[in-house]
Amino acid sequence: MTETALDQFSLLAELVAEDRRALGEFLTPREIDAGSSLFRASEEAEDLFLVTQGSLAIRLDGQPIAELGAGEAVGALCLVSVGRRECDAVAAVPTQVLCLSRESYLRLRADLPALALQLQEAVLRNFVSLVRNVLGDKRAPSASVS
Fold it and tell me: 145 lies in a domain?
């Protein structure tokens, strides 16, 4: 796989082309039929998924909460924290993803530790940004009528 497929992911934006190419060697492509689950809530979170084509409906207790399309990642925190999935991910249309399993990530850490560290730092920066956005929404003054 060339790094070109990975160019669309903001999560990987700080990786140089050579590092994206190297990371590609650890990724496995998967296809998910429309309506099929990529993962379900309470399953062990063991894979990072990069959506290359199609879209995933993210559901919590059966209710849609987000839709992720090409260029977006889901499950990245499993690389830095062991736990269970909090939601379901279902293909809204035929969808293609690249998968970095925990096992592949551990191989990446052993073979290319600097690249693994860069990826881990990107995951954490992405998470911090998400938390700040959520907190910013909560801290924003609400309009009040006097």
Answer: no
